[in-house]
Write a structure and sequence with these properties.
Elements (H helix, E strand, L loop, with lengths): L2 H4 L1 E3 L2 E4 L4 E3 L7 E3 L12 E6 L1 H11 L4 E6 L4 E3 L2 E7 L7 E7 L5 E3 L21 E6 L11 H14 L5 E4 L5 H11 L6 E3 L4 H9 L7 E3 L8 E4 L16 E5 L6 H7 L3 E3 L7 H11 L3 E7 L1 H10 L4 E3 L11
Parallel strand pairs: 3-4, 4-5, 5-6, 10-11, 11-18, 12-15, 12-16, 13-14, 13-15, 16-17, 18-19
Antiparallel strand pairs: 1-2, 2-3, 7-8, 8-9, 9-10
Length: 329
């Protein structure tokens, strides 16, 4: 069986004909396999959803209990049609997974979803999975993206707080994954005081705590008390909400803060380069380690990675899927 007979791009996203399912579909479909809970990958309205238990919980939190007609938690290898699917940790956010599609005859295809190899205190670490076809993102698929140690970036945040003790520090973070990771990193860096969080972050932070992830004392940003560290969605910085804080230091935790022009455009005083995706060295190292027969690239800086694959005699093709970018704020 040819690879394109096992998995192919469609207008709704990647589709597996022998299994009759889509992976991270862009629109409602009958059967969907979901890699993780970010809204550019996990959408409501499907007939049946298969995902990790934590991703299913997160979708219910974000979209309501009726986000799909039926749901099933991935637990071990599952037979679907004439293929077997298995879920493996992706290291991206809580519940994130890579999906391996194994036909009876033909190449084993690994769909990475979004993944990260840097240790993350709020989710399981990325796991290497042998495969013949590796389908990867290329969000940071250019050599300029070399992410620093995230704990060192948290140290920079605490150093700024010590330098400017009278100025509250507001950090822009996505509600799922980055918020909880930023809190955990601040704790690891030595910040034991309460951290104030925007209301948009509350339910997902509560869920992480319920899953056994210690985030320390959290207070609502509407009543921060003595808290000098405040986390909020980046979009909140452009609303009157931010005016309640006097002379704040605006920070933003993202791999995109490598590009200083982005920080300046947003008026960010303290850019924190903390990413939940692989950077260029990790991306290329992953391909070398897995040594697949072919690489397929879903989205991001496809041309840079395609050129690297060409120089290293690795067959590669772009899928040019649209709709998979940073999660909406």
């Amino acid at each position: 069986m040819r690879p394109e007979d096992i998995l192919c791009p469609t207008e709704a996203g990647l589709y597996c004909p022998p299994g009759g399912f889509h992976i991270d579909p862009l629109r409602p479909v009958r059967h969907a396999l979901i890699t993780h809970g970010h809204s550019d990958h996990a959408r409501p309205g499907h007939g049946a959803v298969l995902a990790t238990r934590q991703t299913l919980d997160i979708m219910a939190i974000r979209y309501g209990e009726d986000f799909a007609a039926s749901r099933q938690a991935a637990d071990g290898a599952l037979r679907i049609g004439s293929v077997t699917v298995s879920f493996y940790p992706a290291g991206h956010v809580l519940g994130s997974a890579q999906i391996l599609i194994a036909p009876d005859r033909g190449p084993r295809i690994l769909v990475s979803g979004d993944y990260c190899r840097t240790p993350n205190p709020v989710c399981l670490p990325w796991q290497p999975v042998p495969c013949d076809i590796f389908i990867t993102e290329a969000t940071f698929g250019l050599p300029i993206f070399r992410h620093p140690d995230p704990l060192a970036e948290a140290g920079r945040l605490l150093a700024s707080m010590a330098e400017f003790p009278d100025r509250p520090h507001l950090v822009g973070v996505y509600a799922l994954g980055k918020a909880q990771r930023m809190i955990a990193l601040a704790r690891l860096a030595g910040h034991d005081a309460p951290i104030a969080i925007h209301g948009a972050l509350q339910r997902l932070c509560d869920y992480h705590v319920a899953q056994g992830i210690d985030l320390g004392p959290l207070v609502p940003a509407s009543e921060p008390g003595e808290a000098r560290l405040v986390l909020a969605p980046p979009s909140a910085f452009a609303t009157p909400w931010v005016q309640r804080f006097r002379d704040p230091v605006l920070a933003y935790a993202s791999g995109w803060m490598t590009v200083r022009a982005r920080a300046r455009q947003r008026g960010i005083e303290l850019p924190l380069v903390i990413s939940d995706h692989v950077d260029w060295p990790q991306l290329t190292a992953t391909i070398r380690e897995l040594a697949p027969q072919e690489v397929w690239i879903t989205h991001g800086a496809e041309d840079g990675l395609l050129r690297w694959c060409e120089l290293n005699a690795i067959p590669a093709r772009p899928l040019r899927l649209v709709g998979y970018e940073d999660e909406p704020e």
